[in-house]
């Protein structure tokens, strides 16, 4: 009789733990489940062009010397087709800003073999295993928190934004457009 009571209490405790864990998971992941990427096209009121990818969007800012691109997306073929459909020549992409190295942000990097790539110094140091890049890390330009670079006449400021990953970096372009990835 006593064992039956103990089993019931253990079962009840397990159910409570599962319910709490599900609630915490829902609290954490619900915003990601409800996010919708920007639609392909000009972002109204800006100098930015978006291309919607599977779960996110990649962004372009045209300069006199070519495009600055933020992240590259996960669907290489889809990105390539959307760029062609929208008159963006991959050869004109001169600079790529990587927010972090998750697959859905870097998989289409091979489309831009001539582009200069920028990412946080910490993220670059941490490239191993699941966060490996589909291109060589040789020649990637590391940025530190607060560092500014001039790309095609556009001032790009790297802003450390740990949370999604310790090396995650946001970018402020010309003091007007903030990209967080």
What does it look like?
29% of the residues lie in helices and 28% in strands. It has helices at residues 2-34, 76-85, 103-106, 121-125, and strands at 41-42, 48-52, 57-63, 66-70, 93-97, 116-120, 141-143, 148-151, 154-160, 169-173, 177-179. A seven-stranded mixed β-sheet has the order 1-2-3-4-5-6-7. Strand 5, helix 3 (103-106) and strand 6 form a beta-alpha-beta unit. The longest helix is centred in the N-terminal third of the chain and has 33 residues, at 2-34.
Structural descriptors:
181 residues; 4-stranded antiparallel sheet; elongated
Low-confidence stretches: none
Radius of gyration: 21 Å
Largest sheet: 7 strands, mixed
Spell the H/E element sequence.
Answer: HEEEEHEHEHEEEEE
Derived structural class:
alpha/beta
The helix content, as a percent range, equals 25-40%
Q: How many helical stretches?
A: 4
């Amino acid at each position: 009789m006593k064992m039956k009571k103990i089993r019931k209490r253990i079962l009840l405790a397990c159910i409570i733990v599962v319910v709490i864990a599900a609630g915490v998971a829902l609290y954490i992941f619900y915003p990601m489940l409800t996010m919708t990427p920007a639609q392909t096209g000009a972002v109204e009121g800006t100098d930015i062009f978006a291309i919607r990818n599977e779960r996110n969007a990649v962004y372009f800012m045209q300069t006199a010397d070519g495009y600055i691109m933020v992240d590259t997306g996960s669907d290489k073929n889809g990105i390539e087709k959307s760029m062609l459909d929208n008159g963006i020549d991959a050869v004109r992409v001169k600079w790529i800003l990587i927010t972090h190295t998750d697959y859905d942000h870097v998989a289409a990097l091979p489309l831009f073999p001539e582009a200069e790539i920028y990412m946080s110094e910490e993220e670059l140091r941490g490239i191993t295993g699941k966060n490996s890049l589909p291109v060589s890390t040789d020649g990637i330009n590391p940025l530190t928190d607060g560092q500014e670079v001039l790309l095609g006449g556009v001032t790009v400021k790297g802003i450390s934004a740990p949370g999604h990953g310790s090396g995650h970096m946001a970018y402020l372009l010309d003091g007007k457009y903030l990209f967080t990835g």
